[in-house]
Amino acid sequence: MAGTDSSRLSVETLDADSQPAMILVRPQLAENVGMVSRAMLNCGLAHLRLVAPVEPATSERAIAASSGSERVLFAAQEFATAREAIADCHWVLATTARRRDQIKPVLSPKRAAAEIRARIAAGQKVGVLFGPERAGLDNDDVSLADAVCEVPLNPAYCSLNLAQAVLLLSYEWFQAGLDTPDYELVTNEAVPASKDVVLNFYTHLERELEICGFLRVEDKRPSMVRNIRDLFNRAELTEQEVRTLHGMVTELAHGSLRRARKLGIDVEKLRPEPQPLYTSKPMFDSAFCDKLAELFVWRRDVRRFATDPVPDSTVQELLEIACLAPSVGNSQPWRFVLVEAAERRGAVKASFEAANARALEGYDGEKARAYAALKLAGLDRAPVQIAVFAETDPAEGHGLGRQTMPQAVHYSVVAAVQTLWLAARARGLGLGMISILDPAEVARTCDAPETWDLIAYLCLGVPEEEHADPELVRAGWQERIGVDRVVFRK
């Protein structure tokens, strides 16, 4: 296992008085010292002391083995004897794998960790002794300690290397100070599905299972339904997962229609109308409305992106939300192309650069200088790029609402783009729309059919900057105009 998150607990939050000193007595291999520093830093420890080491803690081999924890090595203290190393300690624990002929309390690692924390909380300094790699602590070293820590392992073979021993005790110390639940379902920003949403999915699923004949044995049907529900109950579904399951069941159902009709099943009777996702009316309080207003304010056209990747699952979730946008005749004419290949992205960037140069020629003087200074695209850094097209004559919707206003198809796709924009902003992501492009070139780059019209080319990623005002306002290009200039009464 590997990975760090610098935003979480770091060694800088722990001073020497709030943690035990890990004391390595006569360590023989620099590599082991480096691995000990790694084990310590994993558990938030940084107070390392060395007694007569063969090589200094900052040797090249120790640093190489530390895997980025060299800050522990550079802060390590060296002593000539174990007695000097523990001189300022009030309580000392010796680690050993075998019983000694000495009368001392013997603690397990868990019990020792609790004792260490209690003594430190009382203002005492604590040291933990670890012996040399070959034979461990000798009797004289053990005699310096107030207690002994033994690890309950296989009595026929309980040999730990130095870093393992330090990690084991460090881990117990770290865990003793955490209030970590034994079980936690990590949903990130996903919302757990309410019972209303889950039960509605069960109704949808069971209806389709009825149609395809899966629940055809009447006396077994109740127990089968309960077993299916128990299966999904254990999954602790989120709202997004329920939406995905609705979509899966719907798509699978299309393939079962032909077979159902051959069996003489009245499909129309069993499936009178599409099942809605929610069966109860939602309530949006004033706090939600205030947050929604903030979302609109902070929805900005982002041009400056960090290079942090966006998980595929997040992109999929955002696109599913975008598909909830309104559309003329429910035609859902939006088509999203994820532009991932480097050569295709390069072609789009080339189209932008050529179009941008032509646009600059249309300005002169101060306006030309201002235009040249504008940041107009995030193509160089945005991790996700999406070309959004409108299917100009979709079969869906059967032409409803677009006979007299065919451009309503394009308006529908614009609504999907805005929905995607807001959903991205709500998740801390930014979206930028690039209009300085040759639509025909982008369509060819994306292998788009002739019936697709380019509506937007979008860049999606983590914003490098956060602003509540448009970049073009900050750059002095165009101020926002008041509502009174765009609202008319007739």
Helix content: 40-55%
How does CATH name the architecture of the largest domain? 3-Layer(aba) Sandwich
List the total number of helices: 18
How many distinct folded domains? 3
What is the 3D shape? Answer: extended
Number of strands: 11
- Radius of gyration computed on alpha carbons: 33 Å
Mean pLDDT, rounded to whole units?
85
Name the poorly predicted regions: 6-13
Query: How would you characterize the largest beta sheet?
Result: 7 strands, parallel
Query: What structural class do the secondary elements suggest?
Result: alpha/beta
**How far is it from the N-terminal to the C-terminal residue, by CA?**
68 Å
The CATH topology of the largest domain: NADH Oxidase
Please provide a brief summary of the model.
The protein is of the alpha/beta class and 490 residues long.
Tag the structure with descriptive keywords.
490 residues, Alpha/beta knot, NADH Oxidase, seven-stranded parallel sheet, 11 strands, 41% helix, extended
Structure description:
The chain is 41% helix and 11% strand. The protein has three domains: 166 residues, SPOUT methyltransferase, trefoil knot domain (Alpha/beta knot, 3-Layer(aba) Sandwich); 76 residues, no CATH class; 200 residues, NADH Oxidase (3-Layer(aba) Sandwich), CATH 3.40.109. With 490 residues, the chain is of the alpha/beta class. β1, α1 and β2 form a beta-alpha-beta unit.
